[in-house]
Inverse folding.
DNA sequence: AACCTTTCCAACCGCAGGTAT
DNA sequence: GATACCTGCGGTTGGAAAGGT
């Protein structure tokens, strides 16, 4: 069997996009909309693979892409979200309107990871030295956080304990998959989880059945994007809103204590 | 000025989940 | 249910640009 290769065509263009290719792609998507990436290159007359077109559009050509320096506020948010979510770049990017997952991933790998690992003695030569130092300093000495392991899988529901002192063990979707380490797995392997019957009254008495954490993230992300795109939110309102979202998220993950510690450190 | 090293970022690759047939 | 295809994600790479010697 085996997978069909992404690009069947030999001699398909690779590497940097030309201005002409950008124009063709933009014009095509403006006329026909996004999607159908596999057939798009042929229809648009581009000698590129569909994946490449999608990436170019998503990371560069799409309207609303914010380019340029990451602000200290954005950096602070990235660091905090990374503490909670790990390398879930698309989720992190979803909370930074105009930023792409690729950009955040690159920024993390090239700047933040080094700074947070204590390599701040060698500031990046392309980075403004004053930029973002404060936020990095705040988090550098912090203990290794519980992070959601990458490549997590979805499960259909999450049980969150109402007892704030006893979060994770009651939550099958949040229980650690490898007890030997401290990593927190957002979702367990679907097949391994015995999902509780929500109609079991005794269970409902003691626990609150909620959509799973990823569903919450999707929901809040969509809400933020919608409000931002529809002009219902001014940029200045974004920070407090995100702060609230983060608090909700930490609550959902059962990490309120750590979050409070962070706030204390920040103060 | 020339060469070497480092940094950054756009793009590629492979994998996994979702959906259609 | 099995298979094929589509899409999105995260890790990695390659090359241009900047800095250092």
């Amino acid at each position: 069997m085996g997978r069909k290769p992404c690009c069947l065509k030999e001699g398909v263009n690779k590497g940097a996009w030309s201005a002409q290719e950008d124009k063709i792609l933009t014009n095509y998507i403006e006329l026909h909309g996004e999607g159908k990436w596999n057939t798009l290159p042929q229809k648009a007359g581009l000698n590129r693979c569909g994946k490449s077109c999608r990436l170019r559009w998503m990371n560069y050509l799409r309207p609303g892409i914010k380019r340029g320096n990451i602000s200290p506020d954005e950096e602070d948010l990235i660091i905090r979200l990374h503490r909670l979510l790990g390398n879930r770049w698309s989720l992190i990017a979803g909370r930074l309107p105009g930023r792409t997952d690729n950009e955040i991933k690159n920024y993390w790998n090239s700047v933040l990871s080094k700074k947070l690992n204590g390599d701040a003695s060698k500031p990046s030569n392309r980075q403004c030295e004053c930029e973002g130092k404060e936020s990095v300093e705040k988090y550098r000495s912090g203990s290794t956080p519980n992070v959601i392991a990458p490549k997590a899988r979805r499960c259909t529901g999450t049980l969150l304990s109402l007892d704030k002192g006893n979060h994770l063990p009651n939550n099958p979707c949040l229980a650690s998959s490898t007890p030997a380490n401290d990593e927190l797995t957002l979702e367990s392997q679907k097949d391994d989880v015995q999902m509780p019957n929500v109609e079991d009254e005794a269970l409902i008495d003691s626990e609150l059945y909620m959509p799973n954490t990823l569903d919450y993230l999707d929901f809040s992300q969509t809400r933020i994007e919608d409000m931002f795109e529809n002009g219902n939110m001014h940029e200045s309102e974004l920070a407090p809103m995100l702060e609230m979202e983060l608090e909700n998220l930490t609550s959902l993950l059962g990490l309120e204590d750590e979050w409070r510690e962070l706030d204390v450190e920040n103060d």
About this structure: The radius of gyration of chain A is 21 Å.
